């Protein structure tokens, strides 16, 4: 599910893609040179800045976009001074970008929207995250996209964290950036709905809380067993005290036909979190063994 989410979020309008490419080029220009990296760090120390390093962007780790944009946006004034002092041809080009108000507006928007997307992606991860949790999070994000579009229609841009760079002088949305942002939000919403077409059809009510579910919505073959479940006072007490997955595992021993539907849904791997956690554990073991071999030899 998270992979489909990442694909949906990778679509950017051409103008915003150019700004993202500019930022990647800036970061690589500094990080690819030990001298530039050291000079930039000294500049940040001189100005008493908390962040003193830029973060590389990698296509493999897609979330690095959000981290990189956040760091560049917070250090934009220091980058402006660095490129002005450097004086090289590339630095002059970068200085011009960072001095352009329109370019900065787009950068501010990219920083904000990627931060929101990164928060969504992180919320979809975790050892005990179920597909139900992911469905709820994605539904909420799609509704937020619709809400932001509606606010832009009436000229409001107060839903992001970098308003100073993106708002006009009178607190209203700049028309050019407003139209671009609205087009991007609309395209993103359409992409999400394309990649998750079944979200509105998923009926998770019985799994979330069988005691608030109408028996008529349950398949005929398990209705009688379902009636027994919802009138089981011990099962009701367990539902209030146990985690959802644990509850349905317990019910599978007593009401197997009803629980089968819930267990199959909850068993779905909602993310690659467990897989990545396993790889991390293997890498740790491999590194420890390699270190032991080196020390032993």
UniProtKB/TrEMBL annotation:
Q: Which InterPro entries match?
A: RNaseH-like_sf (IPR012337)
Q: Source organism lineage?
A: Eukaryota, Metazoa, Porifera, Hexactinellida, Hexasterophora
The record's listing under SUPFAM superfamilies reads: Ribonuclease H-like
| Superkingdom of source | Eukaryota
Q: What is the protein name stated in its UniProt record?
A: Uncharacterized protein
In its UniProt entry, the species of origin is given as Oopsacas minuta
């Amino acid at each position: 599910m998270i992979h489909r989410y990442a694909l949906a979020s990778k679509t950017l309008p051409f103008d915003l893609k150019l700004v993202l490419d500019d930022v990647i080029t800036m970061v690589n220009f500094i990080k690819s040179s030990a001298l530039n990296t050291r000079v930039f760090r000294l500049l940040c120390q001189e100005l008493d800045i908390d962040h003193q390093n830029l973060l590389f962007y990698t296509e493999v780790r897609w979330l690095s976009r959000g981290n990189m944009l956040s760091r560049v946006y917070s250090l934009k004034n220091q980058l402006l001074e660095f490129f002005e002092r450097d004086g090289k041809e590339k630095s002059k080009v970068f200085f011009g970008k960072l001095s352009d108000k329109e370019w900065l507006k787009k950068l501010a928007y990219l920083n904000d929207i990627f931060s929101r997307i990164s928060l969504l992606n992180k919320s979809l991860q975790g050892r005990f995250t179920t597909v139900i949790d992911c469905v709820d999070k994605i539904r909420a994000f799609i509704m937020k996209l619709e809400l932001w579009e509606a606010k832009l229609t009436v000229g409001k841009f107060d839903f992001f964290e970098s308003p100073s760079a993106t708002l006009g002088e009178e607190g209203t949305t700049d028309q050019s950036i407003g139209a671009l942002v609205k087009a991007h939000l609309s395209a993103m919403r359409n992409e999400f709905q394309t990649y998750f077409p079944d979200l509105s059809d998923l009926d998770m009510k019985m799994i979330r809380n069988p005691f608030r579910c109408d028996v008529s919505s349950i398949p005929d073959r398990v209705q009688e067993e379902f009636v027994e479940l919802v009138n089981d006072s011990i099962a009701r007490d367990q539902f209030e005290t146990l985690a959802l997955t644990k509850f349905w595992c317990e019910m599978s021993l007593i009401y197997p036909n009803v629980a089968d539907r819930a267990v199959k849904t909850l068993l779905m791997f909602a993310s690659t979190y467990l897989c990545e956690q396993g790889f991390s554990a293997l890498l740790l073991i491999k590194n420890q063994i390699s270190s032991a071999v080196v020390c032993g030899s």
